[in-house]
Amino acid sequence: MSPPAAIDTPSTLAPNEPGLTEAEAQVQVMKFPMPPKFDDPYKERAYLKGRLAAAFRIFGKYGFDEGVAGHITLRDPVNPHTFWVNPFGTAFSLIKASDLILVDEKGVVIDGGENRLLNTAAYMIHHAVHEARPDVNCAAHSHTIYGRAYCALGKKLDTITQDACAFHNVSGFWCFSHTYTAVVFWVVEDTHTQTNVPTVFFR
Ligand SMILES: [Zn+2]
Question: 159 alpha carbon to ligand 1 midpoint, in Å?
């Protein structure tokens, strides 16, 4: 039996790696998967709506929802001044891409599934975030058991872990955890904070 021809052949593909064989040089290095790029914003919209629906399913699976509370919004690639959000009353764990509703900058539902009920708080909070941060395409708002339990303590996160460092000096966290009295109905943009997170008022 003759030996495999390629095994001991010096590589011409990677001349700066002495001793590398042709077969070794042809091994593809694994790359981290990246989001696909689209030339057509309508195709991008369809793709991202599928991802948004999947995000709701994941939130539902891990119990990040609470009744009708909580939202995840997605800036629309066709009209970046509008965003997609979950319709009021539809369970996170059941949401399909075709259920999502499209909300314009005035809070009017202009497209989406059969249930076009919009939670006023969803519009007030998420519109302010999307307007204040054009670089942010998605905003997730949950009512997790752990998050609510911690907020009831009325204190900031100590920066004692890598995860907590992400919230260092983030006034939005402070605001959301300290000023809650009821459902959100108005928002004042605060461009002076480090993160440009709008200040949200409740009543
Ligand atoms: Zn929300």
Answer: 25
Please tell me the predicted confidence (pLDDT) of residue 130.
93
What is the Å distance from ligand 1's center to 127 Cα?
A: 10
Residues 108-154 have pLDDT tens digits of 999 999 999 999 888 998 999 899 989 999 999 888 888 888 878 87
Phi first, then psi: give them for residue 120, nearest 5 degrees.
-55, -40
Going by DSSP bridges, is the β-strand pair 101-103/184-188 parallel, antiparallel, or unpaired?
unpaired
The pocket of ion ligand 1, defined by CB under 5 A, consists of 71, 122, 125, 141
pLDDT at 22: 75
Per domain, the residue ranges of the chain are 1-34, 41-202
Per-residue pLDDT of 68-102, as tens digits, reads 889 999 999 999 999 999 999 999 999 999 999 99
Tokens representing 68 are 């009708």
Q: What does the DSSP assignment read for 91-138?
A: -GGG--GGG-EEE-TTS-EEEESS-----HHHHHHHHHHHHH-TT--E
Evaluate whether 65 touches 86 at the Cβ level (below 8 Å). Answer: no
Cα 137 to middle of ligand 1, angstroms:
14
* Predicted model pTM: 0.71
Return the CATH number of the domain spanning residue range 41-202: 3.40.225.10
CA distance 180 to 164: 21
Token pair 């499209």 in the structure block, residue: 102
